[in-house]
Amino acid sequence: MIECKRILAVVDAERDNQPALSRAYELASKTGASVTAMMVVYDLSYDMTTMLSPDERESMRDAVTKEHAKWLATHLREQGFTETDIVVEWNNRAYESIIYYTLNNQIDLVVKATKKHDDLASVIFTPTDWHLMRKCPRPVLLVKEHDWPEGGEIIAAVNVGSEDDEHAALNDKLTLIANDYASLLKGSVNLVNSYPSTPLNIAIEVPEFDPDTYHDAVKNHHLKEMRSHALKYGIPENKCVVREGLPEKVIPQVAKTLDAELVVIGTVGRVGISAALIGNTAEHVIDELNCDVLAIKPDGFVSPLSV
């Protein structure tokens, strides 16, 4: 069962409606959690005020922050949200304030809305979204504007083909969380796993290499591991998908076919140069999805902002 006592909903001042708050309240109504609405503000004109005294600059910050706090309180009342804690902080790196607040206030879940691209039908993710997925130690739920109907489909994106303990533990964690949300929303869980295509360079360079035998061996290994994993959690075989291809292609295709409401996915939280050069598989997957995404860190993850 989901143990969620405190939810942090990130508010975007540029939006008329607040899907993150709506989703946070929906979850709070089912779990008994409290909701804190947080807005991070920064005025670029502040960078041009270096000629002012420190007191004057601080007064400017306070005035802007109080103005947004007043707007937020009024906006929440107009939207029908009550009994919500309000936090407004000044920072030109919004993700830092969000993560620090999460760490210092025992937040169990961070909820943030994604944005619609002006010219495309797809959802885009902001730099703040990426930083939260990489660095926030708590689950991050990225939402779009839609309802969560009962009986919806929930996907746990697993990697059953890997033999290392970290991936196995993350698979277990993702499946348990997906089951919890399915119970909460009266939905059903689907397990989705992709496996790599036969490397063509080996088929060309090694004459005795049999690509068909290799392909069948890899596929059968993933099917066997998927059956074993699904059996452990009571998930029927018709709710398991094992498909050849890259995860960033397979998972969005399955999500679209199922019209999934939520995809639960693990992210290793790679940061620094390796993140810039390699990126995370989860991020490539998320960029192609058009539904809510719950990004989960492996056990033992330590946020670089907590060091």
From TrEMBL:
Name the UniProt record assigns to this protein:
Universal stress protein UspE
Keyword Cell cycle in record: no
Looking up Pfam families in the UniProt record yields: Usp (PF00582)
- The UspA domain is annotated at 5-144, 189-297
Q: Which family does it belong to?
A: Belongs to the universal stress protein A family.
What is its biological role? Required for resistance to DNA-damaging agents.
Species, as recorded: Alteromonas marina
Q: Where in the cell is it found?
A: Cytoplasm
Does the keyword Cytoplasm belong to this entry?
yes
Gene Ontology cellular-component terms listed: cytoplasm
What keywords tag this UniProt record?
Cytoplasm
Major localisation: cytoplasm
